[in-house]
Amino acid sequence: MPSNDEFDRDTDYIATRITADGRDGFPVEPGRYRLVVARACPWANRAIIVRRLLGLEDVLSIGFCGPTHDERSWTFDLDPGGVDPVLKIPRLQDAYFRRDPHYPKGITVPAIVDETTGAVVTNDFAPMTLDLSTEWTAYHREGAPDLYPEALRDEIDEVAERIYTDVNNAVYQCGFAGSQASYEAAYDKLFAALDWLSDRLIDRRYLVGDAITEADVRLFTTLVRFDPVYHGHFKCNRNKLSELPVLWAYARDLFQTPGFGDTIDFEQIKQHYYLVHTGINPTQLVPKGPELVNWQMPHGREALGGEPFGKGTPPGPVREGERVL
């Protein structure tokens, strides 16, 4: 059990699933649901990437919250009048309260909202992207990659579990540690995992198999935030990502792959962490750096073989209204 000074993420999410057979009462249905995200959030970033890779733009609409939020809720302050144009609400909490007027937990992104009722269906981010891959297949674009191939699922799950516990969540355990001991334990766990990932990726282009899978999506959203946020803000400072040659090249490879880097807004990412986490950054100063142009440098990982989309094809251009400004 975690001690009182360790960061313990609340993982009790709304577990309803949207499935092809509608077994939870919510069948996959084009035009019925809205994916609400924030570009700043790594968990939401997964869903943005997967939706784009699979070509679900025409069947699953998307709403973007701003990069900051108050104690109550993420808000739609990027939209005219601060109101989501489809859901007609200023705060994501309004959709949670339509599901449960006494909803007691945090208002989190990503969330999928039923447009017919305005109520949140699920905010369970881990199965959400898996369902997009496996339950929405009738609406995938032609040439969509298989991000969760059946033959590799056990290995993907195993790798993804360590990525979650020792990387995705460990950076938060560093940043929100309440004691030196809990911080150092999380720090050691994080960098042991990054070393393990470096070893795994030294002679293979992707984490599992010869193409991008769900495991790569889950790792990328932490790596892309590492130098702008986690290295300094969360004190994950043994190395910068740019000082870890294998992971830095791997991250650039993904960043330059359509569907990954074109979802990233570094300014919103920095604004979120440095403005919202006042317990860590009470002055709310947002750093100017680091310089991020190096994400477009050649990575050389094509030499390892593999194709990013397997037998599929890249997604098309980012849709109007969904481009990073």
From TrEMBL:
Record bears the keyword Glycoprotein: no
Q: What is the lineage of its organism?
A: Bacteria, Bacillati, Actinomycetota, Actinomycetes, Propionibacteriales
Q: Which InterPro entries match?
A: Glutathione-S-Trfase_C-like, Glutathione-S-Trfase_C_sf, Glutathione_S-Trfase, Glutathione_S-Trfase_N, GST_Omega-like_C, GST_Omega/GSH, Thioredoxin-like_sf
Matches recorded under PANTHER family: GLUTATHIONE S-TRANSFERASE OMEGA-LIKE 1-RELATED, GLUTATHIONYL-HYDROQUINONE REDUCTASE
UniProt-annotated site: Lowers pKa of active site Cys, residues: Y230, Y273
Question: Which GO terms fall under molecular function for this chain's record?
Answer: glutathione transferase activity
Active-site positions on this chain:
C41 (nucleophile), Y172 (proton donor/acceptor)
Give positions of region: Disordered: 303-325
Q: GST C-terminal domain spans which residues?
A: 146-273
Among Gene3D superfamilies, the record links this protein to:
1.20.1050.10, Glutaredoxin
Name used for this protein in its record? Putative glutathione S-transferase
Residues annotated as binding glutathione are: W74
Instruction: Give the top-rank taxon of the lineage listed in the UniProt record for this protein.
Output: Bacteria
Task: Write down any Gene Ontology CC term.
Answer: cytoplasm
Using the record for this protein, list the coiled-coil segments as residue ranges, or answer none. none
Alphabetically ordered keywords of this record: Transferase
